[in-house]
Amino acid sequence: MDPVIIVGAGPVGLALSLALAAQGVPSVVLDERTGKEESRPARSVVLRADMAAMVERLGCTTLRDEGVRWIGWRGMRRRQEVRRLTLDLGLGGTEEWSEDPDAPASPAAPLHIPQHALARGLRDAIARQKLIRLVTESRLDTIEQDRDGVVAHTRGPAGTWWRGSHLVGCDGARSTVRKLLGIRFPGRTAVERHAVAALRTELPWPGEALLHRQPPWRGAAEEITARPLPDGVWRIDWLLPPRGDLVTPDALVARIRETLAGWCDGVTPPYELIDTGVHTLHHRLARRWRVDRVLLAGDAAHLLGAVGTQELDEGLRDVDNLAWKLAHAWHHGGSRSERLLDSYQSERRTAVATRLRAADQSLPVLRGGGGLRTFLPGAARGHDALLTDGHVGRGPLGAPPAYPHSPLAPPHTEGQTPVGTPAGAPVEDVRVTAPDGTTVRLRDRLGLGRLLVLLVAPGTGVWDRRHWRTAGVMPKLEEAVDALPVKAEVLVTEAYPGAPAHAVLLVRPDGHLVAAFSGVRPEELYAAADATRGGSDTEGDGAEEDPEEVSEVSVGSDRTADMH
Questions:
Q1: Distances (CA, A) of 7 to 168, 223, 326
Q2: How many Å apart are CA 417 and CA 141, to the nearest integer?
Q3: pLDDT per residue over 186-232, tens digit each?
């Protein structure tokens, strides 16, 4: 079987190759650059807790070594603090929760890391993988498709052509793949501009991120954001006027000194300027994300980033959604694989379009100086809350996406029961007991291409696993799971938010809830699992291979990376 061809070796393309390798799928990553990452501390990325956990599962170690999780978030307007949040330094999992639905919950701490450090960590993980071939100085020239695969012709010092089962364009905003497919990329240019500086200094809020709106000092930007990095480094962003002058070095230094003095009682503290830049944000959405065996992901498919939305975080969500579906298509093929790949566009494009719509609707109010603020008392506080939620991963600008109308959703049945997570939304990261008897986080079991079947069984923690595994509903549940049309793993948890005792939750490989059932219902569980893999297939059924059982294939072999 030919490998998957990935065009582009940014964080999205690198992460996709690792996610496929975890499910036994070989890939060839075409990188038009030399493979060396330029150190740019001012070019950093913010990952929500669940995406940071996904990247760590892929083997990227730099998140812990060179990233930082904020311990808190502050919102200021003029001279006053208007909002302060203590952030959960775990991975956003539910250790305990309140029975009071109105009780405030601490948001999970986002992770902030320079993009070059993230990419280097992913490349290091790839170097330990035998199913990934990374080809540098290889620029895509043309694409040819047939019913069995894709051929990519490349230019470079060793120009050649590659045969793959599928091709995924992760090649950025100016995507060659998207242009070769003739896919339109409509949207808005220069939605926002920010002057950016990375500097080492001491600020009054160590470890906390800050959003300061309408600072009181003369000549200040309308909005300033300060976000900590390791080793005393801060990234500071100044929102620029839409049609302002170019940011000269002298003007930027003046901004730095005025801002630091404004935050430090009128005295500019010592600082070391490390890196600078101007960050221009665009909002665009590709009309199509799939043309037969070619797909788009990351910036090649969408651009966003204004008012707290996080561009790379959304690209990694593309990876999380696509990898298990592409792995199924690679291992099994058939008509259900086509429906699975179609669902990638349906789910992810809808989610990103919703995020873009929320940002575009918010911008005139947040940046226009009028709008609702003129007519509604307290509207400014609502603006502060909306922006804060966007930055910390909550609300319409920041919350992880749900897929309630997914084409993979099973029909509702009488046996389904509501839990604290709506169908299609990401599940809570509760502690679970794995098949080997160890206690792990639920997220630790994701990303391997198999469904998770979670039994809520209060009291099991006090029993030896040898006893409770053969008691109560467990034998019936394991028998039902063994009969499913796809590989699945049974996990047990003491409790899950909003779930009654003996509820059974079916979870997708990317951590989204398929359905929850009141007890063990084999027929309904089977139907839900069948819907999740794309429904019945005219080209053959039967239980699928476990990706961990697929024999290792050398990427240099003729079966995985044909080079001509």
A1: 6, 37, 15
A2: 52
A3: 999 999 999 999 999 999 999 999 999 999 988 788 899 999 999 99
Query: Tokens at residue 97, please?
Result: 């929760």
Token pair 């429906």 is found at 339
Closest Cα partner for 220 from 63, 364, 29, 78?
78
Max CA pair span of the chain: 73
Give the residue carrying structure tokens 């409790």.
Answer: 495
Query: Minimal CA–CA distance to 312: which of 294, 326, 298, 331?
Result: 298
Nearest C-alpha neighbor of 563 from the set 40, 198, 28, 76: 28
Strands (E), 179-245: 187-200, 208-213, 223-228, 233-240
Which tokens sit at 273? Answer: 């300027």
Residue 116: both structure tokens together: 């070059």
Report helix angle 49-57 to 11-21, nearest 10. Answer: 60
- Closest-CA residue to 133 (of 171, 172, 164, 170): 164
Distance, CA of 23 to CA of 548 (rounded, Å):
7
d(CA 321, CA 313): 13
Residues of the chain with pLDDT under 70: 90-105, 368-381, 460-471, 536-564
Q: Give the C-alpha separation, 328 to 323, whole Å.
A: 9
Determine which helix (DSSP H) or strand (DSSP E) holds 361, and give its type and residue range.
helix 335-367
3-state secondary structure of 314: helix
How far is residue 20's CA from residue 29's CA, in Å, rounded to a whole number? 12
Element (H, E) at 281: strand 272-285
Contact 59, 364 (CB under 8 A): no
What is the number of other CB atoms lying within 10 angstroms of the CB of residue 255?
A: 20
Q: Tell me the residue type at 184.
A: R
Instruction: For tokens 């990694």, name the residue.
Output: 316
Within 8 A by CB and 6+ apart from 272, the residues are 199, 200, 201
The Cα–Cα gap between 250 and 355 comes to: 36
Closest CA to 518 of 537, 534, 499: 499
List C-alpha distances in Å: 245 to 102, 223, 279, 296: 47, 17, 14, 35
Q: Which two tokens stand for residue 143?
A: 């694409």
What six digits make up the tokens of 320? Answer: 């999380």
Whether residue 392 contacts residue 110, with contact meaning beta carbons closer than 8 Å, is answered with yes
Token reading at 29: 């990553």
Going by C-alpha positions, the residue among 550, 560, 91 that lies closest to residue 332 is 550
pTM: 0.91
Residues 133-176: pLDDT tens digits?
999 999 999 999 999 999 999 998 877 999 999 999 999 999 99
Eight-state DSSP code of residue 35: S
How far is the C-alpha of 68 from the C-alpha of 46, rounded, in Å?
10
Distance between CA 303 and CA 179 in Å, rounded?
16
Q: What SS3 state is found at 118?
A: helix
* Torsion sign over Cα 363, 368, 374, 378: positive
Q: What is residue 115's three-state secondary structure?
A: helix
CA distance 133 to 35: 12
